[in-house]
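#onboarding

Welcome to the new folks! Below is a worked example of what a typical request in this channel looks like: someone posts a single protein sequence, and someone else replies with the predicted structure as tokens. Don't worry about understanding the tokens yet, we'll cover that in week two.

Example request:
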Amino acid sequence: MSSDRKKLTTGWGAPVGDNQNSQTAGARGPTLIQDVHLLEKLAHFNRERVPERVVHAKGAGAHGYFEVTQDLTAYTKASLFAEVGKRTPLFVRFSTVAGESGSADTVRDPRGFAVKFYTDEGNYDLVGNNTPVFFIRDAIKFPDFIHTQKRHPQTHLKNPNAIWDFWSLSPESLHQVTILMSDRGIPATYRHMHGFGSHTFKWVNAEGKAVWVKYHFKTEQGVQNLSPSLAAQLAAENPDYHTEDLFNAIESGDFPAWKVCVQIMPLEDANTYRFDPFDVTKVWSQKDYPLIEVGRMVLDRNPDNYFAEVEQATFSPGTLVPGIEPSPDKMLQGRLFAYSDAHRYRVGANHHALPINRPHSEVNTYQRDGQMRPDSNGGGSVYYEPNSFGGPAESPADKPAPLDVTGQADSVAYDHNDHYTQAGDLYRLLSEEERERLVQTIVAAMKPVERDEIKIRQIGHFYKADPEYGTRIAEGLGLPVPQ
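Example response:
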């Protein structure tokens, strides 16, 4: 070995004398269990894959920054929005939703759009999608919905019967189904799609005054989409097309950017708006609540190691900072628990202490121990609270703002059940060419469904959104329009 090369070592730092040949009992004898370097290599290899994400398993990520361009401190005291020109480092992970980690990038699927802001008051995660709405609006339905997107337990094949049966029995899905089956169902790249926080959140300013808010990330590259035929070709020829595109763009200095905007709603409007503002299957009209620019997101650095950064990155909508709080959105409320719990299972109880997830600000907790603790574990400092030894103490000024609640504890649905107006409005906004492609896509997706009653039930939803919408799909499937 040349003198300028570092010595190969074991995981515990001992030099390795031979990395090409196992220790054996004689030249042809059995391998010796005393070859601890061999055992370590094989044992580590067996454990090199953490369980893949149940959803959003296939993805790509990049580092960048958020820069404030407009002063919105009248609405939030969150430090990342503190002053025009302030930059906050961040990490973004884009992903598909339903497929496994080895699936193709160019499938028809929503795209995850998760942003981790490393603010000076702790991390803030905005865990959204490339669509402003979702298929369901209550977290209690989420496991069932995702089951329909996965493989049949007997055939291990994707199951159109389950997909369309669930959607046809969940009319709140119609808005998102229409977006998914439209041209925007297959983005050209991760760079050429918008991002959305999707949920409603609460912003609180320094005086304690609150508003409701929705996030929009508008791509500066322009929205571009793939035709189904090109997407299928790319899936066969380069299933990692989006991953490769993002990496190569950043590597060549073509840094993708998004203008970050918000919609702001006064708290009292939530009681009178024509749609429930906490229902994630609905949007707020931009005529009612215009987009307000707040900043700009730029991605300018690729990960050095995919596993350490992209695969081990963990995001949760419950990772909040002072000035940003949840809303009563039933889907969001479930995600506040489910995402962090998934990370504790998949990566470990100390996932937040890994370099990619560790806040850039100081962390002072009484959390101790657990698998794979990567830091000093608190050393010999006080490990409980309250204490009289000067340990970290609560700061009452950072308590969340109060929210009025009332009513009986019960399993209650949303009051508003108009699942058709916004889907119909979207259909009517499309050009004739876009409508034709939408109908063709839906017809092709529904043809494999074996039971006509499922198809007819779903056609009824399309018809309620717009009679032409339902009629064209019924004609494409050779079925009657429900009366």
